[in-house]
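Here comes my example:
=====
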Amino acid sequence: MNVLLSIKPKYVNEILAGKKIFEFRKAIFKKKDIGKIFIYSSSPVKKIVASFEIARIISDSPQKIWDKCHKYGGIPENDFFEYFKNSDIAYAIEISNLDMFSAPIDPYILKKNFRPPQSYCYLSLNYFNTEISDNIPKKKVRDMVLLELTDKYITSAYSKKNPGRSQKLNEYFTEIELENLPKLPENWEWIRLGEVHTLKSDKHNGSGESLFYIGLEHIEKERGTLTEAVKIDVINTVKNRFKKGDLLYGKLRPYLNKVYLANEDGVCSTDIIVFKSTIYLCLNYSKYFFLSRQFVNDMTHNSTGVNLPRVSTKYLKEYPFPLPPLPEQRAIVSKIDLLFSELDNGIANLKLAQEQLKVYRQAVLKKAFEGELTKEWREQQVNLQSARNLLDQIQVERKEEAEKSKSKLKTVKPSTEAELEKLPQLPKMWSWIKLNSLGDLARGKSKHRPRNDAGLFGGKYPFIQTGEVKAAKQTIRDYSKTYSEFGLAQSKLWPKGTLCITIAANIAETAFLGFDGCFPDSIVGFSASETVVNMQYIYYFFNANQSKIEAFAPATAQKNINLNTLENLLVPYCSLPEQQAIVTEIETRLSICDKVEQDIAENLEKAEALRQSILKKAFEGKLLSEIELDEVRKAEDWEPAEKLLERVKAERQ
């Protein structure tokens, strides 16, 4: 039994790019005898683009599934929790042996009454062969489907030799295998990677010498460069040796795409394969080939092991490798270097702009609470109330509220002159006032032990945690857990609009409750009278001072601050109309920042896509212009790849 799974195109792209290894679902297959999962890329693509096998299916609460799988989930956190809104359980399907079709299958042609599933549907093993479009001969379609479902592209067509099926066109691939590989330019050859890449077996026995050492952690992901952490180290265990000019490839977790062309002699982790340099192959060309998306995807989806997936040396050596003449290899590398240099400069400028925006955001918030953003506004106002008069009004309102609710109003110790002298000077009519004087602060409640008692959960009352406060964009709209009546009885239901402030793990993250909800004592709730306090003003104050507030936390593994820290937090307080004006000024400026940041993020994505486009063209033989190719063919050592292979063989003998 197979399954057809509907997935949005943007997530399909993440799967095909090797970035999304877990597919998330609210409901899962009831049948157990699942062979393959076919991916249907929904509108506007409407094609079946790939298949995969199930490594495992994990089920747990949405929060725990996110914690376990989000790194390779290929989905933003907000989208994840929006999808699982009101769901108590989530499923993560781990993708294994992904087969990406070279040409997507159009199911509407193959089956007249095809209807895409909302989520998934079961398929019989011969589903696409039972009802064929009237306009297409049955045998032809069956052959086409068979070809596609057994890997029309590189991923597995080359993985098994079968000389009996067809007469060989060369000694490396059968006729069918070559038909299933992209066509190469004249004078290029498809060969198996191991035919021109010699695997080194030199070992260092771990004698305690100090040597230049490269571990997987020292190779930059997807860049082919080393990190700054690489250094001379004392080597006490067996390592692989390499020489300057050798090519290093990380076989562990191949999706991390770790490749490096050595500029020095040294030793490396045994999870790094070393290919020997040769005068008949430009290993810089090979390095870029290893960095190409198609190669990375195929290595990733043909690795074995769940926690520590590795690609086998045998699979790697049998992989198809497009070999051009040697001068053309060098020219391709030069062209890639030039284009990547320009691309990297553009990316560096974009990332610099990102950092400058962060600085600008903080500058806006800093000036806001120094009164700079509303300086001209204040000069145009008359009869503004002073902060001290407003504070008196707040105290009267809070006292009246306490009397109505028959609760005790907490006494706030005023700031001393010595404390106030250390603070920046504020505009006229402003005052430094403790947060606890402006409204009500209280920790959340979760009295019952153990806190994970199943009886606490599964009801209708939203239960918010620190991670959901951090993930929210100003307002909390999603939650992964709910309290039952029993859970509510040992907690407290806070009203919509309460400002949630985290005091453990994520310090001073803030967001407003978008609904009535409960939260534990790792979150503090703050509320104040709308007649004297603009809650958005307080929210932005925390944004401006988060790092300062976090500094109050002791340097422990689990950072936290106490309620007293927040109660005594001094806020630059001004009249309500000015608070509203400040909020408007902040949001006007930050909304522009948001738009610019979005544009930068989109351009960074385009830059990475362009990088892969360059590599794709390079290994299809389409990167060099005719003028560049004419120049290459004048090189003294130019000869067809077929002749180059003869030299490689002679060298090995």
In short: The first strand starts at residue 2 and ends at 7. The chain has 24 helices and 28 strands. Residues 129-169 have pLDDT under 50 and may be disordered.
